């Protein structure tokens, strides 16, 4: 954890949390009129009334929407403390417009409890986000006003990704709208001609996994971490075939579904999101059993039963042949975690249009959609 220099944002005597919030709205103005110096230079009476400043702040047990905080305190005047004020700011918003609602720093007022104290709240904590935090001790006076200590040093921490508990909640929401299952027989991947030329010439005829972008849920544990290759399996309900349009390029690599998805692979649910449209996307991961991608997913994602799930299945028919189905009402984005040899399928030009607007590269999830958001950090 890194320490940053303290910025002067102490409010010398907050009258109420509410007023504090208002003061924080114009943080820059407060900084301008803040007094220099510290309280130890004040009179002897002020010295006696001084509340202990939190020292050596430690953050632990960080999740996507909670953390534990503790600190050391001088035992002097400790019994006078009735409240803790916690000043929490998104680090990335330090220079952002503070008048926009989402950028308002959060000043939390907590009743003094034994430390460590758990701070939890999805309305002010987002997953995978850097925060700065400072604490002051406070004593509620007879008139409802607060006497406060100096602010502590400022420390930084980063909230965690969605845990499998949260991902399981997302999975259950996705199941609700998955719809009936349609048969499919191929996976396909659209790209530009240069992509396939490069795979042939520089990568020994193989498409190689690359790190997943930041599309989808902000707290997704695979964004920026899991390496894989995106495939589609959706078919048009009237033809039973892949659509001829694609946002990703005029060339399409297509291969039999069993080359990627079979009892030799594990299947994981990774994400559920939309982008301010009626369509919803589900990201699934196929990982060859025992591969490094499989190990990564095993620790972070809910596993799906190959033959029995609402999104994409692989099962055997009476003759022992593998049959594949995908959910009709979701757009599935399937990540395969190992290299794929082009000799396993064919590359051909598609006849349809390149629908750039439907691309999900680095797509931002709609945080207000009730269908695909869970009640934890966004
Ligand atoms: Zn949605």
From TrEMBL:
Leader sequence segment: none
PROSITE patterns: FN3
Stretches of the chain forming a coiled coil according to its record: none
One family name in Pfam for this protein: fn3
Function according to Swiss-Prot or TrEMBL: May play a role in the development of the central system.
Family that this chain belongs to: Belongs to the PHYHIP family.
Protein name, entry field: Fibronectin type-III domain-containing protein
Provenance organism: Sinocyclocheilus grahami (Dianchi golden-line fish)
